[in-house]
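DUF2256 domain-containing protein
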Amino acid sequence: MMKRNLPVKICLSCDRPFNWRKKWSKDWDNVKYCSEKCRRNKNR
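Structure:
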């Protein structure tokens, strides 16, 4: 897959776009945050 064709989501914490990563391939539908830091700060 070419980088420009990768799926993109918006982080629920920081509102920034993030791209699909191979480590998320099996669980992409459930990924909501771009990083561990955002996941920890989800209520802010």
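The longest helix spans residues 36-40.
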